[in-house]
Amino acid sequence: MGTKRGLMAACLLLLAVWSTAAPSDEDGSLLWLRQKPTTTTNTITGVKGTAMTELQTYWQGGPVVLKRQKGLARDSYTIKSQGEKTIITASNDAGLLYGAYHLLRLQQSGQPCTSFDIHEQPAYDLRILNHWDNPNGTVERGFAGRSIFWSEDSTKPNPAIIKQYARANASIGINGTVLNNVNAKPEALSAASLQTTKDIADQLRPYGIRVYLSINFASPIKLGGLKTADPLDASVIRWWKDKVDEIYKLIPDFGGFLVKANSEGEPGPQDFGRSHADGANMLADVLRPHKGIVMWRAFVYAPQSDDRANQAYLEFMPLDGQFRDNVIIQIKNGPIDFQPREPYSPLFTALTRTPMMVEFQITQEYLGAANHLVYLAPMWQEFFSFVKPSSLKAMAGVANIGDDTNWCGHHFAQANWYAFGRLAWNPSLSSREIAEEWLAQTFTSEASFVAALSQLMQDSRETCVNYMMPLGLHHIFANGHHYGPMPWFTAPGMRADWTPPYYHRADSIGLGFDRTRAGTGNVGQYPESLSRLYNDINTCPENLLAWFHHVPWDHRMQSGRTFWDELCHKYDEGVKATRHFLAVWDAMQPYVDRQRYEEVQRKLRIQARDAVWWHDACLLYFQTFSRRPIPQDVEHPVHNLDEMMQFQIPITMYENPECGYTK
Ligand code: BDP
Predict the structure, then answer these.
(1) Which residues line ligand 1 (CB under 6 A)?
(2) Percent of the chain having pLDDT more than 90?
(3) Domain count of the chain?
(4) How much is the average pLDDT of 76-84?
(5) Are residues 48 and 141 in the same domain?
(6) From the CA of 186, how far away is ligand 1's center (Å)?
(7) Ligand 1: which of 181, 260, 264 to mutate, judged by most atoms within 8 Å of the beta carbon?
(8) Is residue 152 located within the same domain as residue 175?
(9) Cα–Cα distances in angstroms (integers) from residue 661 to residues 59, 177, 210, 614, in the given order
(10) How many Cβ atoms sit within 10 Å of the Cβ of residue 192?
(11) How far is the CA of 192 from the centre of ligand 1 (A)?
(12) Domain residues for 358?
C-alpha cells in the first residue's frame, strides 16, 4: 500500500512539475476566450441573457448588476464599483453585453479587477465583417479552410461553431456580418439560401450581431427571369421590393446589402446605362421601410485605365451628394488593392457629401496568406493618421476565418481579427496596446513574453513591406494567388493592370510609377498640402517613393545611399528581421504550450524562407534593369533568376498553403 501511495504521490508531483514547466497543449480553437467555464443555470434569453450567462460562466469576481439607462449612446456602457458590487449600465442590451466582455477581458489578461470607473462608447454604430464565402463552401482569398456558413451539399452550419464565432465577435464589439462573397452568386437570394441565412441570423442575434448579404446586381435576370436588371425599370424595382420583403419576413432585423457592381466583371447599373447612384439608391429605397442599408463598394477600375489608382475617384467624385442617406460607400483603405503599403485612397478626403466606410482586409491576400506573421493593426493605424476616424460612418474588415481548428490558419492571424474589432470600436487605440491585450489573453500575461512578442508584432508589418515590396513598390505578386513574387509576369491578352510591370515600370532609368502632375496626375487627387509633398521626389515620403515616382536608380536617399542600394538594403533588412522573429520565438518556448509553439515556429520558418525567395527574385530581376551590383554588405542571392522565373506555385495553393518556394 505504502509504496503504491508513494508512487502515486511521485506521479502527482511529476505531473505538477511538468504542468508548471510546460503549459498543456492547445490547438487555438478557443481564440482569445480561454477562460475555464463553470456550469450555469441562467434561463434568460436575448442579448441581456447572453451577458448574464457569460458573467455567470466566466466571471470570478463579486456580484455584477446589469442596468439599462436611457440617454447613453447606442452600445456604450459604464462599469462602476459600488462596494462589493460592480454595476454595468448601458442604454441597450448590446451595451450590457460589451460591458460584460470588458470585465472578462480584464480578468483574463490579468488586469486589476477592482474600483472600476470605466466609460466606453464605440466610434461607429456599424462594425462589420465581410466574409468572401461562396455557396459551395470555398472562401475567396481564404487561407483557413472552408466556409463556416456554406457548404456544397447544403449541410447546415455547425451551431457550436456559430456560437463560438458569435462570442468571439461580440467580445470585441463586432455587430454585423456579411455572410457571402462580394463576387455574389444570384443564388444567395434563393429561398433555400435565405433559410440558411435566417438560421444563422437566429444564432447570432443573442450576441447582438446582425446579418447582411452581398447581392449580385443581375439577380432579377438570373434568379427572377426578368429581361433586365435596369435599376429604373418598374418590374426590376418590384422584384427587389418583393425579395426584400421576403427577407425581412424571415429576418426582421436583417441589416442590408453589400454590393460590388461594375467591377472585375460583376454586373451593375452601368450595364443598363445607369450610374452607381441610380443602382445604390434603388436598393436603398426598397430597404428603407425596413431600416436596411446599402454598402456600395467603390472598388472599380476600367480594364484600360492609364492609372488604376485614379479610377475610383474619377467615377465617384461626380456622384458626391447624390446617394440616399441609407447608402454608405465602402472604400478600400488604399486606391489599388490591399497592398502591404499604399497611400490612403484619396476618396476619403475628397468626398464631402457622401457617407463613407473603410474596407480593410483582415485576410492576408497580399501579406503572406496564413503563412506569414504580419500584424495588421500598425497598417490600419497608419491609415487613420491620414483619415480622420470621424469622417467615416463605419468600418468593415474582410474576414480571415475558416473551418480550420484555429479559425485563421496561423495562430497570430487571430490577432488581426481581434485588432479589427477593437479598432472598429475605438480607432485611436494603439496597435501595441491591442497586441498586448491579445497576447495576454491568448497566450500568457507573463511580462517578458508580452514585451517580446508585442514588439515582434509591431515590427512585423514593416518587415513584410521590406521583404516584399519596399519604398513604394506595389503589386509585383504572382498572378492569381498573390502569394509569391513575380515582378516579371506578363501574359498575352491579359489586361495590363493585372500584370506587375504595369505597376513597377522598371527600365534602364529607374523604377516606379510616375503619378506626379507630369505623370498620371494622381497626386492631384489628394489635398493640396499632401499633393505638393507627394509630387516632389525630394519631399515625397521614401516609403511611397516608387508609388508616386519613377525613381532613377542613382537617386540619392536620406541615408546617403543610391535608390538601388537602398532597395537592396530594404530587402536585406526584411530577410534578417524574419530570422530575428524565429530567434525571439525560440526563446519563448517556456511560456507557450508545445502544440502552438511548434505550429508557430513552423510558420515562422516558412516566412523566413519566403523572405529569401522575395529578396532573391526581386533583386535579381530588377538588377537586369539597374545593371548595378548588389552592395557588399547585403546578403547576396542564393538562387538564380532563371530558376525562380520557372518556379510556379499552383493556383490551388489555398488547399496547400505551405507550398512556397522550397528549392
Ligand atoms: C481583390 C481580390 C479579389 C476580390 C477583389 C474585390 O483579388 O479576389 O474579389 O479584390 O475586393 O483584392 O472585389
Answers:
(1) 140-141, 182-183, 260, 264, 299, 337-338, 365
(2) 89
(3) 3
(4) 96
(5) no
(6) 18
(7) 264
(8) yes
(9) 47, 35, 42, 10
(10) 10
(11) 26
(12) 126-188+210-242+260-287+298-430
